[in-house]
Design goal:
- It contains six helices and six strands, in the order E-E-H-H-E-H-E-H-E-H-E-H.
- It is elongated, with a radius of gyration of 27 Å.
- It has two domains: about 150 residues, Ribosomal protein L4/L1 (Ribosomal Protein L4, Chain: A, 3-Layer(aba) Sandwich); about 40 residues, no CATH class.
- Helix 1 crosses helix 2 and helix 3 packs across helix 4.
- It is of the alpha/beta class.
- It holds the Pfam family Ribosomal_L4.
- Keywords: Ribonucleoprotein, Ribosomal protein, RNA-binding, rRNA-binding.
- This is Large ribosomal subunit protein uL4.
């Protein structure tokens, strides 16, 4: 029998011009570490360029001439100097260009994203923002805003916003990782300490969870 999906209502703080308020959200009540590992492994595999390449003994730039006679030399038998046992010779079973990506079910990817966000909400590390007041694209403006809301750089922050000016203002800070709403992913959530999203990014996240599998 299929297990029922267990969800928990989280009260997520929202920073708005009128002050702080809370938004109720249904997110997974339990986090499956192995499922998160599967999604991160899939993400990193998809990012691999797969361009590593080595030359076999047939590809190295050496003559194929036998280096000395087969017999009566008192030495071991050898063919050409491009053999793998010689320095500079070909490589045995070395890497060749390949595609490391593979398919992961959409339901698994969607569940992993929901669990990663739920984990940040459970730890009190998820913050929603209605408007970035005073941030017009300058780093000093974002620093002033961050200080006002309690972000002081003591931990890394994943900033997900549809406002390009805000992303531009924050991208030079070493403790901030910026993403557009469509780019929200499990790996970046887990490798940063806090998750900050504007309401547009939150809507995109909810649509991704509610879409057809």
């Amino acid at each position: 029998m299929r297990e029922a999906k267990v969800e928990t209502v989280y009260q997520i703080p929202v920073i708005s011009p009128a002050g702080k308020r809370e938004l109720a959200a249904n997110l997974p009540g339990e986090v499956n570490p192995h499922l998160l590992w599967e999604v991160v492994r899939w993400q990193l595999a998809s990012r691999r360029r797969g361009t590593a390449s080595t030359k076999t003994r047939g590809e190295v730039a050496y003559s194929g001439r036998k280096i000395y006679p087969q017999k009566h030399t008192g030495r071991a038998r050898h063919g050409d100097i491009g053999a793998p046992i010689f320095v500079g010779g070909g490589t045995v079973f070395g890497p060749k260009p390949r595609d490391y990506s593979y398919t992961l079910p959409k339901k698994v990817r969607k569940a992993g994203l929901a669990m990663a966000v739920a984990d940040r909400a459970k730890e009190g590390k998820l913050l929603l923002v209605e408007a970035f007041l005073g941030v017009q694209g300058k780093t000093r403006e974002f620093l002033a805003w961050a200080k006002e809301v309690g972000l002081d750089g003591s931990e890394t922050v994943l900033l997900v916003t549809a406002d390009e000016a805000v992303r531009r203002a924050a991208r030079n800070l070493p403790w901030v990782v910026t993403l557009a709403p469509e780019g929200l992913n499990v790996y970046d959530i887990l490798r940063t300490g806090r998750l900050v999203m504007d309401l547009k990014a939150w809507e995109v996240f909810q649509e991704r969870l509610g879409g057809e599998a």
